[in-house]
Structures are given as C-alpha cells and as structure tokens.
Amino acid sequence: MTKENGVIVIDKPAGISSAKVVARVKKTLGVKKAGHAGTLDPFATGLLVCGINKGTKLSRFLLGGEKKYTGIVHLGFETDTLDPTGAVVRQTHRKVLDSLSEDMILKTVAGFKGIQQQQPPVYSALKHKGQPLYRLARQGKIVTKPPREIEIISIAVKKIDLPSVTIDVHCSSGTYIRSLARDIGEKLGCAGHLSSLVRTYACGFSMENSISLTELENMDKDSAFKYVVSLSESLSFMPVVSVCDKTIDKIKFGQRIGAGDEAALCSDSVTVHSQFANCKRLQESFVRIVDKNGELAAVVEYDKNFNRYNYCCVFIS
C-alpha cells in the first residue's frame, strides 16, 4: 500500500469552502477519491484533514476526535450566521461594552468549561429532512435544532482588546465556536459573534503536520505526496496489533478473527502478543491490524457476545 492512500493535512485559507479545498487537493494529487474529516466554515482557517483514496475510509474514526481552536469573539453585535459574513440582527450600546471589566470577562469565559447543552447555529451543515440548515436558512426557512451535549475541555482568554476577546478552546467534536461566541456575549449582557476562527488541532494532528493549499499546488506531484500520512499513522491514537501472513490471509478472505488468534502474531511481537490476548483496552476500542511491514490491513472492533473481532474497515485485497 503506497502513500497514495492516507491523509494530508491542509492549512485551509479563508474565503473558500472545505469542499472546494478537497477538490483542489484531489486535482493537485491526481487521485481518484478525496474527502475531509470535519468541515470548516468558509471564513475559518486552519486544519482541514483530508483523506485520499483509501484514506477516505478513515473519516468515521477521525470525525469524533477532540478539536482545538483560537477564535476572536467580537462583542457589541450579533449576526444571523454568528460570524462576520452575516447580517446584523442585534446590537448593544457602547456603554454596555465600556462597563465590562477584565475580571468579569475572564470569569464569564472560564464558566463555559465543562459538559453543557449547546444550541447549534441555524446556518450550519446539520441537516433537516436531507437538506443542510444553511441552505434552508438562505431560502428564508429557519429551522432550529434542539440543543446538543458538548464538552468544553478547556477555555482561556488569550487577549482582551474590546470589542474583541481572543480565546483558546479545546472541545469535543460537534462543538460550534460560533454558538460559543454568541453565548459568551449573552452571558456578558451584550450581543456577540465570532469574527475569526483558526482550527489548530484536529484528529490527532496539529499545525506542524499541515501544509498550505498554495504550497501544495506549487509542488510537483512527488514532493506533494511526501506530505501524505500513511493509513496506519493517521490512526496512531488506536491500539495496534502486528500480525503475520497467516492472519493477513484470513483478513483478505474475510474470515473471522477470534481472541485466540494471538498465536498467529509475528514472532517478534511478544509484547503485542500478550496485549491482543489479554489487554482489556483492545476490547473497549477500535484496533488497528497491521502487517509485518507496518501497513494497515484492517480496523476491527471487539464483539464480547461472540468473543471475536468484527471488521470495521478492510484495506487489503
């Protein structure tokens, strides 16, 4: 399996949709398939994780990962999209902003840490009867989704320069920083929207792993493919088991892998051998199965009812 299958991490520029970034990556690399593992709004910048060819199968394992952002909350007015692209729907008098103290802002922002219910924006990629909410909203059909449980793992104020407040956020998947900006404004007694957003961490990747879209497009194809992360490396957060050719053949033919298959592990994988047989962690998460060269063969999940591992995705044939 070559580097034509895997993940490439793009530092997305502002003013372009995630779908268009994917299309340009696909064209630049000349691959058959490409997709992203979590969208970014057109106005936002930062990490966009793109799967290429067989790497598109990894999205289901990457979408639920934690994210980190740096955003600027602009206090004083709210827009219908909760970002700078929308129409102003609510404004606050300057006197209200002038009354805000640094201590009040710090305490209010810190209060958003933890598990909570969050109202998604009416302009979002969430769907209603098969239609994205943003498309319905542009047609004047406003659909309000019920609040969803999210978690703000950590949140801190980086800079206060009213009417702007810069924040760093570490959050669960499904968190809308636009909604967070709105809610911060409401807690402070004034309107607010998100004027800037940079995603700095997603799916186990950080900015150090990324390349800008312009840089990628100016490279020759061989150089560009050096930025592709292998299938197995892309799932480095999963426990891994290395198996010998006999088990690889079982995977190729779709034969079941049982808890007793530890006997088929490569002879130099003694530590992994005992893990596969006994480690409870492998029975509580997805598991990467790699061949003796370290290439991803499959992702499996333990089925306690039948004491075996079921295939989630197979990458060899």
Instruction: Using the alpha-carbon principal axes, give the shape.
Output: elongated
At the fourth CATH level, what is the homologous superfamily of the largest domain?
Pseudouridine synthase
- The tally of beta strands, per DSSP, is 20
Radius of gyration: 23 Å
Q: Tell me the strand percentage band.
A: 25-35%
In the CATH classification, which architecture of the largest domain applies?
Answer: 2-Layer Sandwich
What is the rounded distance between the termini? Answer: 11 Å
Low-confidence stretches: 262-278
The number of helices is 11
Supply the number of structural domains.
3
CATH topology grouping of the largest domain: Pseudouridine synthase
Pairing-aware structural class of the strands and helices?
A: alpha+beta
Q: Level of helix content?
A: 10-25%
Which whole number gives the mean pLDDT?
Answer: 88
Tell me about this structure:
The protein has 317 residues and is of the alpha+beta class. It folds into three domains: 6-65 and 204-234, 2-Layer Sandwich (Pseudouridine synthase), CATH 3.30.2350.10; 67-202, Pseudouridine synthase, CATH 3.30.2350; 240-314, Archaeosine Trna-guanine Transglycosylase, Chain: A, domain 4, CATH 2.30.130. 25% of the residues lie in helices and 34% in strands. The protein contains eleven helices and 20 strands. The chain has helices at 18-29, 59-62, 94-98, 102-110, 133-138, 177-187, 213-217, 221-225, 231-234, 245-252, 270-278, and strands at 6-12, 34-36, 45-52, 67-75, 77-79, 88-91, 114-118, 127-128, 131-132, 148-161, 164-171, 192-202, 205-206, 211-212, 229-230, 240-242, 257-258, 286-290, 296-303, 308-314. Strands 1, 2, 3, 4, 7, 10, 11, 12, 13, 14 and 15 form an eleven-stranded mixed sheet that branches. It has a five-stranded mixed sheet with strand order 16-18-19-20-17, with helices on one face. Strand 5 (77-79) and strand 6 form a beta hairpin. The longest helix has 12 residues, at 18-29. It is elongated.
